Amino acid sequence: MSVLFCDTDCELWYTTAKELDLKVIPMPYTIDGTEKMYDLGENTDFKDFFTRMRQGSAVITSGLNPETYIELFEPYFKAGEDILYIAFSSKMSNTFKYLDIAVKELREKYPDVKYRQFDTLNISMGAGLMVYMAAKFCRAHGGDIDATYDYLESIVQKVGVLFVVDDLKYLARGGRLSPAKAKIGNVLQLKPVLCVNKEGEIDILSKQSGFKKAMSFVVSEFTRKYRPAPDAPVVIVGADCDEYVEELKSRILAAVPDADIWVQPVGPVIGAHCGPGTYGIIFPAESR
């Protein structure tokens, strides 16, 4: 027997995760001093979360401790199941050092269990799309986690992520941009188009002047890099910005009329760093 794990930073929608029988690790966020665990949208009030962010609520994210990881994984180690954890980018969190402590302890206790961990070098639905494709592959190949790991290696650089933030102050709060640059950028209406690079880090791909130019650049980059792949939809995400999402969707369908498009909200853990008004697109690509 084998089992696939993912975490809620992959942002795969909860109904899809259940359909694929994925074991999901909830990731924490704290808003106005109250800690919550993201549940892939099952009971999440996205509108309330982003409204509170716009009103100035303090939001922070954090990792999990080793004890939590042991509690989550031990039943499967004890049952002797093969385990594959498809994780979000290790470059974006310190939580993996605590995971390593937990896995080391479990391996010493259950030495015959096969545990493998794949770093998607991605975040949000960039990781989620890989989880989805891998789960479909694993099911079609009899639960073989070694073959699934190899499959993931073959697609890890072929999932593109492009996104645009509406207000630079949230990147500044997270330490990804200086407050001075954020203020100047907002005054000048600069809209950076960001990507997740080959190393699994967020990079600025371009700086566009205004909303229209930013979206046009995103559509142009998507059209240039998009390569249809089996079991791989195009995913558009938005952080409480339905009008941006609808416009992007219509532009993508104009460019690729037969695209299978999923639309999903940005979750609170990712949203804490990019802020309301962020929109993005995740898709199978020739390369990142």
What order do the helices and strands come in, and which of them pair?
Elements: E1 2-7, H1 14-19, E2 23-25, E3 28-31, E4 34-37, H2 46-54, E5 59-61, H3 66-78, E6 82-87, H4 95-109, E7 115-119, H5 125-140, H6 145-155, E8 159-164, H7 169-173, H8 179-187, E9 190-196, E10 202-209, H9 211-225, E11 234-238, H10 242-255, E12 261-265, H11 268-274, E13 279-284
Parallel strand pairs: 1-2, 1-6, 6-7, 11-12
Antiparallel strand pairs: 3-4, 3-5, 8-9, 8-13, 9-10, 11-13
Task: Give an account of the 3D structure.
42% of the residues lie in helices and 24% in strands. The chain is an alpha/beta fold. The longest helix has 16 residues, at 125-140. It is globular and about 55 Å long. The two termini are 34 Å apart. The mean pLDDT is 92.
Shape assignment? globular
Structural class: alpha/beta
SSE string, helix = H, strand = E? EHEEEHEHEHEHHEHHEEHEHEHE
Number of strands: 13
Radius of gyration, CA atoms, in whole angstroms: 19 Å
User: Total helix count?
Assistant: 11
Unreliable stretches covering 5 or more consecutive residues: none
Helix content: 40-55%
Largest sheet: 6 strands, mixed
Please state the average pLDDT score: 92
Order of strands across the biggest sheet?
A: 10-9-8-13-11-12
Q: End-to-end span in angstroms?
A: 34 Å
Measured by DSSP, the beta-strand proportion falls in 15-25%
